[in-house]
Design brief:
With 149 residues, the protein is an alpha+beta fold. The chain has a single domain, classed as Thrombin, subunit H (Beta Barrel), CATH 2.40.10. Helices cover 17% and strands 39% of the residues. The strands form 3 sheets. Strands 4-5-6-7-8 form a 5-stranded antiparallel beta sheet. The longest helix is centred in the last third of the chain and has 15 residues, at 97-111.
């Protein structure tokens, strides 16, 4: 719950419902093949959902407004797909058919054994996101500023 709204997830859907009127404010469909049920957690006007990745969206009744969809790699780094693709230089690798196959192998190795544990709810305490991953417990400082490039 955030203010007068409750945010819910079920199957591939997210929704915002006004508690006073019981009116659905918005629905959104998750771009996932098989999302898992987990508790949504809210902090600082944002809602977090973790399943294969970390989705953060604005806790507003005006519509679904995603802020971040991030993956967790085998080393525990949290970043969006574009950042990982750049770090791994996959664009260059994928210029050939053989490179595309290699890119898929690299991607599977980097992410298949990491990420949030299915059906495990996350928690936020003092600006830190705690969640169970396939490898253990992870903590991400949501208050930290990104490093300068």
């Amino acid at each position: 719950m955030v203010g007068d709204n409750v945010f819910v997830q079920g199957d591939r859907r997210l929704a915002c419902v006004d508690l006073a009127t019981d009116e659905t404010r918005w629905n959104a469909t998750l771009d996932m093949a098989r999302p898992q049920y987990t508790s949504l957690v809210a902090a600082d006007g944002k809602v977090f959902y973790t399943c294969d990745s970390v989705l953060c969206f604005r806790a507003t009744s005006e519509g679904f407004r995603p802020l971040m969809t991030a993956l967790i790699d085998e080393k525990g780094l949290l970043a969006d797909e574009a950042a990982f693709r750049q770090m791994l230089d996959l664009e260059t690798l994928e210029e050939t058919a053989e490179g595309q196959k290699e890119s898929q192998k690299i991607w599977r190795k980097k992410f298949n054994s990491s990420g949030p544990l299915a059906c495990a709810s996350q928690a936020i305490v003092d600006g830190k996101l705690f969640l169970r991953t396939k490898k253990g417990l992870a903590c991400f400082d949501l208050t930290a500023k990104p490093a300068a490039e």
